[in-house]
Amino acid sequence: MSDKDSAMAYWKANIRLIFISLIIWALVSFGFGILLRPLLAGISVGGTDLGFWFAQQGSILVFLGLIFFYAWRMNRLDRKFGVDEE
Fold first, then answer.
1. pLDDT of 31 over the 90 cut
2. What predicted TM-score, i.e. pTM, was given to this entire model?
């Protein structure tokens, strides 16, 4: 594999990871917190309904989880393509 092909595969994998992370973030924050809130209203979490919880706390926690997931996956991707910092 040439350097150009390797760089293209690296960026393609990177963009795919970013796209998947953004879809998950949008689904949780916009989908669960706003669009699906009436459907989640009957489920109680911590004294409030699940839709409100996702809008106030859940989307933030999922976003933080996505940051750590992205860093972990990018470290693996960097090692795979030989562009890691170590």
1. no
2. 0.80
